[in-house]
Design brief:
Layout (H helix, E strand, L loop, with lengths): L6 H14 L3 H16 L18 E7 L5 E9 L4 E5 L5 E7 L2 E8 L11 E9 L4 E4 L4 E5 L6 E9 L7 E4 L4 E4 L6
Antiparallel strand pairs: 1-2, 2-9, 3-8, 4-7, 4-9, 5-6, 5-8, 10-11
Helix pairs in contact: 1-2
The protein binds fe (ii) ion.
Length: 186
């Protein structure tokens, strides 16, 4: 049997890996398997994680954040039928499914970014992430997430910088707009 793996051990590994490299491919290669390992543990999961905010359909629970807001680890939940439209994070992200199935849509940006507040996107690909499935999103990568299942989803998110403290955008694919996107995830 595999030894238990705690949030504290995961954070130690994140510190070591990100001290050694800033290359996103290397971070994803190294952090991905560890995030999957932590996601397979139930030691960090609390009952309250399964009660997302009824109004927004979403809640996030902070498991760790460094003092400078780097290396944020969160548990995120979605109510069935709820999700978030196209957005970026302003940092890298490693997400692993824990419960339920989340649909992930990735977008390609077609315009040259020369016009402020304007963005042309097209769908690059769509996938579903269930328990143990890994989704790595580059800094600047644009995606949307939706819980298309009939139960609350839970996933484990790791960000290079806590998303309350990054400059990020949300996009309207039909109106071709990009707008700064502030969140206040607890
Ligand atoms: Fe996201």
């Amino acid at each position: 049997m595999q030894e238990q793996y705690s949030v504290a051990q995961y954070v130690d590994d994140l510190r070591r890996i990100t001290a050694e490299t800033v290359d996103e491919n290397e971070i994803f290669d190294q952090v991905g398997p560890l995030a999957k390992r932590l996601a397979s543990e139930d030691s960090w999961i609390e009952e309250r994680f399964y009660n997302p905010d009824e109004e927004t359909g979403f809640s996030a629970f902070l498991l760790h954040e460094e003092e400078d807001h780097s290396l944020a680890v969160l548990a995120a939940t979605w109510i069935p039928g709820m999700g978030v439209g196209p957005h970026d994070h302003g940092t890298w992200a490693v997400v692993v499914g824990v419960e339920g199935v989340e649909r992930n849509i990735r977008y390609k940006r077609l315009d040259d970014r020369s016009k402020p507040d304007y963005a042309e996107l097209e769908v690059k690909d769509e996938s579903t992430a269930g328990p143990g499935d890994l989704v790595c999103i580059r800094n600047g990568g644009i995606h949307a997430v939706r819980n298309d299942s009939d139960k609350v989803t839970l996933s484990l998110h790791t960000y290079g910088t806590h998303i309350n403290h990054t400059i990020r955008s949300k996009y309207d694919i039909e109106a071709h707009t990009a707008a700064e996107f502030k969140v206040d995830v607890k």
